Amino acid sequence: MADTETTTPDDTAAADEWAKMLEAEEQKAADPAAAAEGAAAGGEEPQRVLNQDEIDTLLGFDVKKDDPKNSGEGIFAILDKSTTAYEKLPMLEVVFDRLVRQLSTSLRNFTSENVDVSLESMVSIRFDDYLNSIPLPALLVVFRAVEWENLGMVTVDSSQIYSMVDILLGGRKTHKTVRVEGRPYTTIEQEIVKRMINVLLADMGTAFEPLSPATFLFDRLETNPRFATITRPGNPALLVRLRVDMMDDRGGMVEILLPHTTLEPIRELLLQMFMGENFGQDTVWEKHLGKELKNTNIELEITLPEKTMTLKDVMSFQVGKTVLLDCSPEDDVTLRCGGIDLTKGTLGKVGDTIAVSLNDSIKRKAKD
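and the corresponding structure tokens:
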């Protein structure tokens, strides 16, 4: 008996459905507008197309926002995930607030004029992005952090340079905005900027002093940003913008750039919470620690007068051999703890116990 092929009702319905889908695809390809109207009439919601502003916001290219803090949005927030935010280092704001107060006083003494320094912003930025954003002409000063064994950079814009030159060299007092020229900076202008930066570096070392000793020294002065490379282009850095306002509407911007690799030696100190003017010190904990240290058991050593011998004599030591010391039983012995001489005393005996009678009090020796 031969088998006969039969078509079930389910197979027929599936074939009709596939045919309708193919016709709909062909109609959509021929006339997209009619297909969209048909989809809307059939109850299907048409796909929404993003406009240019929404695309810019999604990708992080929102040019309407000038605030540097809003640059880490969209896909940039994912790409710049390795950038360490300065908010994670609470002590940085304390240090630079102290720098602003000290620098205002120092620049007043430096220029003999009324100078006001304010903290404009503190942001974390990639080093290569900062080099591309520097407005030219400008002077870039590379300095060296001696204790941290790394480099930093200070950028002075043209408005601040010309304002400082006018004030120090007796320029005319005018209310007009300082004209920014496109010419190279002269030797006199560079020397004035170098002197101003030395004042800033000295104050910055003083600002870090309560937290960690820091010495910042002038290294070199550059006019081309590409010659001032102090770290890898992709490394994150802390950018501090300071606004300097001087008399007669003069002034400008001074930017301090510290790569996070430069701050790494004191990172643990920068993570402390600010507690008043003690820079993170907890007085309650200090008192408790001092009290517990006084109850700590330590091992004391009593050292007899020492004698210098040759290695040959030491190698010839045998059981029962007597070593003669150049001292008498009444001579003083040295009391030591951890290899440090504390005081001297006289060796004696109380009952069956050997004792030492102290001759001097234990005093903390001042370091030279």
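(Above: one complete record from the training split.) The radius of gyration is 38 Å.
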